[in-house]
Design brief:
This protein is an alpha+beta fold and 359 residues long. The protein is built from 10 helices and 11 strands.
Length: 359
């Protein structure tokens, strides 16, 4: 392995051992805050440190077997030792690749919760029905991965389609699981209302934003206006007799957030502020880090709302992701939330591009 690579692994290994020693100290154990801080630091380097320790042990075993084979006079024993050297050498190659992956730059937002925004695009009512299908697809995918989904706002059409929906997704690596969904999704199918059996093309846009924490975004009271109104469903259905829906307008950016999913005004307000913080985090952080993020986003496409990322072709039973050229002929199960093969392929593509970039 390259000297800089080895040096980095040695530093990580030393840091891990040092932190382990500190965590065993009686004074640190007596201070929960300090212990938690050190434990968090240790967990961040634990996987590559332990893997490097395995690498060093395998290397030691190989060298010992190599030395013993050179000194051995018995042909049968010499062959066994040679086999052990070969096995260790193969294991070292695998460990090198694993360590390279572990040292790749990580997306700082991967461990965050996220906000998912779905909007109907071109195609009228058919686009709204497709947006509703995406809503259900993501809800089922999240359920498979034990991610919690909470509705923030949803504007439905008379036929049950969705004009716009905002979801809050929380759980282990929620953003990492969904971040590649941002972009324009295209559907090709024959609508139920089409009498001549013609295939129509419609679109919906998806935006996945990492959730901001309270301390990361300052919202000044003078910069916003909070309006309260009665929530209502499609066609005037499910009308609330009390004013529980919330609309927050942020004057400096022009961002407007609404929430009417809960019957409680307070809960709607809390959800609306969470979405506002997230959109502001994306707005300000996106501007300052656009150049840094361009490299990562270019690995599997820009992932913004102006780019067509995926096509759902129902007549052919096909789902194609245009960023990596992968087509799956399992559209029925895919729409039921079985997206793992696609998500894993996108993550692998990002990892391989990063590895190639580092060479």
């Amino acid at each position: 392995m390259a000297d800089t690579f080895i040096s980095k692994l040695q530093d990580i290994h030393r840091k891990y051992l040092n932190l382990s020693q500190k965590l065993a100290d009686a004074e640190v154990i007596a201070d929960p805050a300090e212990w938690a801080k050190l434990a968090k630091e240790q967990s961040e380097v634990e996987e590559p440190a332990v893997k490097y320790g395995e690498y060093l042990e395998t290397e030691r075993q190989m060298n010992e077997a190599q030395k013993a084979a050179e000194e051995e006079t018995d042909a049968e024993m010499k062959a066994l030792l040679s086999d052990e050297v070969y096995s260790c050498r193969r294991r070292l190659e695998d460990l090198r690749e694993e360590l390279k992956i572990l040292l790749l730059p990580k997306d700082k937002n991967d461990d965050r919760n996220c906000i998912v925004e779905i909007r109907a695009g071109a195609g009228g009512e058919e686009a709204a029905l497709f947006a509703a299908m995406l809503y259900e697809m993501y809800a089922r995918y999240c359920d498979r991965h034990r991610l919690k989904v909470e509705g923030v706002d949803c504007s439905r059409t008379e036929l049950g389609g969705i004009k716009e929906a905002v979801l809050n997704v929380s759980g282990k690596q929620a953003y990492k699981q969904l971040k590649f969904e941002s972009g324009v999704h295209r559907v090709q199918r024959v609508p139920e209302t089409e009498s001549q059996g013609r295939v129509h093309t419609s679109t919906a846009t998806v935006a996945v934003l990492p959730e901001a924490e309270d301390v990361e975004v300052e919202i000044k009271p003078e910069d916003i206006r909070v309006d309260v109104y009665r929530s209502s469903g499609a066609g005037g259905q499910k009308v609330n007799k009390t004013e529980t829906a919330i609309r927050i307008t942020h004057f400096p950016t022009g961002i407007v957030v609404t929430c009417q999913d809960e019957r409680s005004q307070l809960k709607n307000k809390d959800k609306a502020f969470k979405v506002l913080r997230t959109r502001l985090y994306d707005y300000y952080n996106g501007r300052s880090q656009s150049e840094q993020d361009a490299r990562r986003k270019s690995l599997v496409g820009r992932g913004d709302r102006s780019e067509r990322i995926r096509t759902y072709n129902f007549p052919q039973g096909r789902v194609t992701d245009h960023r990596i050229g992968l087509s799956l002929y399992s559209i029925d199960t895919f729409m039921l939330g079985d997206m793992d093969e696609m998500v894993n392929a996108l993550q692998v593509a990002e990892r391989e591009a990063l590895l190639a970039e580092g060479n």
